[in-house]
Amino acid sequence: MSERGTVGGRAPGVDRGASTTRQRVARGAAGTVAFLCVWWAAATQFPIYLLPGPVEVATAFGRQVASTATYTVPFTGTDVALSAVVTHLLQSLQHYLPGLFIGSTLGVLLGVLVGWFALVDDALTPVIRVLRPIPPLAWVAFAIVWFGIGHTGATFIVSIGAFWITFYNALSGVESVDREVLEAAASLGVHDHATMIRKVVLPAASPGIFTGLRTSIGQCWMIVVAAELVGPPGVGEEILIAAQNLALDVSVAYMLVISAVFLASDAAFRAVERGVLAWRT
Questions:
Q1: Are the C-beta atoms of 48 and 248 separated by less than 8 Å?
Q2: Distance between CA atoms of residues 1 and 119, nearest Å
Q3: What are the φ and ψ backbone dihedral angles of 149, each rounded to 5 degrees?
Q4: Of 29, 43, 120, 121, which is most buried, counting CB atoms within 10 Å of its CB?
């Protein structure tokens, strides 16, 4: 038998599968330390305004945490003095969360309808093919004209990004439902569309739908920075302002704040996903 495709006589995936949790954590820690060392070494070769090092970024983060900024509570208009990091994060969440919810909800709904009903597919596919290549940021001008400067326009931009991700994942999930499953459901008396979608199609397509939702959680954070070009305050705006002032240590600090929030939200969503999809195991 040829040794091609093996490492040391074993399949490439065997070693990783056999690794213990402790080994994987140790490797991840080693990789992180190596990255920090390379980052630090590279930063010593440049001035801080071109490439801040880990120490400078940590110091900048500490300054932002220690400083205060005013946060206006939505609907009540109450001003509260909070840590600058918390304030700017809450400001970003004011358009991140609504945009994620609106875009994901519409994406899942339309993806299921297009995937299930041939009439809807035929009617909307030409429009979808025209609109899909347009990036969310191309709608910034429309957001400013339609909604003005503020959270509403940014919510609009974020929702567009979330929509297309969840739409195509929901569509793919519906289209991948095994026809034999549908035939079995029909033989058991499930004939109307509403019941078939609710009891058969959605459960079968749920892995794809959850993949789209999870991807949207990360992608929408990427869009937030650009969405805040339309004026609303938040983490993205702080990144841009700091970069304009050559305070890249502050920019990187807020970039890492976004990363930390994403990691936390992704872990929470994965826990929910495992619970909801436990019936498939």
A1: yes
A2: 54
A3: -90, 120
A4: 43
Tokens 């019941």 locate to 195
23, part of any domain? yes
Q: Is residue 193 part of a domain?
A: yes
- How many alpha carbons lie under 13 Å from residue 76 in its C-beta half-sphere? 6
Instruction: Convert the pLDDT of each residue in 181-230 to its tens digit.
Output: 888 888 888 778 888 888 889 988 999 999 999 999 999 998 988 888 76
- Same domain as 127, residue 26: no
pTM: 0.85
* Residue 6, domain member (yes or no): no
In whole angstroms, give the CA distance from residue 118 to residue 113: 9
- 3-state DSSP percent of the chain in helix, strand and coil, to 5: 75, 5, 20
Q: What single letter denotes the amino acid at residue 232?
A: P
Spatial distance between the Cα atoms of 223 and 239, rounded to a whole number of angstroms: 13
